[in-house]
Amino acid sequence: NGVLLPPTNLEAFTEPNIVELAESVKDLSTLVSAVVAADLADTLSSAGPFTVFAPTNEGFSALPAGTVESLLKPENKAQLADLLTYHVLPEQVLSKDLKSYQRVKTVEGKSVHVFKSGGKVHVGPSSHDLKQVTAADNVASNGVVHIIDGVLLPPSTPPSPAPPAPQT
Fold first, then answer.
1. Exposed, middle or buried, 14 (CB in 10 Å: 0-12/13-18/19+)?
2. 123: nearest Cα among 157, 156, 89
3. Buried (b) or exposed (e) across 100-129, using 16+ Cβ within 10 A?
4. What per-residue confidence (pLDDT) applies to 14?
5. Over pLDDT 70: what percentage of the chain?
6. How many of the other CB atoms lie within 10 Å of CB of 27?
7. Is-contact 18 107, C-beta < 8 A?
8. pLDDT by residue (tens digit) across 5-52?
C-alpha cells in the first residue's frame, strides 16, 4: 500500500569493522587500547577477513599484576603484537562452521586448539589451557569477533638444543 524508496544514506546500514565493533563494546576497552598500542588498528580495520578471539577486560585483569601495563609500554610493542595476533585467524570462522575439534594457525604463526561440545566453544594453546567463548558470532564488515573470558598465551618455542661439545 505504498512505495519503498532506497535509503539515501547507505553508510548508516554498513556493519562496523572489527576495530569499530570492539570500540562499541565497553568490556573490550583494554583490548582496544592494546590494539592501538601495538599499531594493529589499521590491519584489523582492513578488508580481512579475520576471526578475532577477543579477551574481555576481566580476562586481561586475570593476568599477573603489572603484565598489561608492561605490555602497553612502547618498548614492548613487538611482544604485544605477537600476543594479540595469536588471537587472530586469517579467515572468517563462524561458530556454526566449527567441528568438535580443530587446530588452526593464527596470524602470529602458532596454532590454537578449538573445541566445540554441548553448544559451548573453548579455545586455547592446549587442551589444558582453554578459554570459553562467551559471546560468539559478532559479525563485522571484515570478519567476526568471538568474545572470550581470558587471554590466550602463545606457547613458548622450545629452545634449540645446544650443539655438541667439541671432542678433545
1. exposed
2. 89
3. eeeeeebbbebbbbbbbeeeebbbbbeeee
4. 77
5. 86
6. 16
7. no
8. 665 555 555 789 999 999 999 999 999 999 999 999 999 999 889 999
Rounded Cα–Cα distance for residues 50 and 107 (Å): 9
Is residue 110 within 8 Å of residue 86, measured between CB atoms? yes
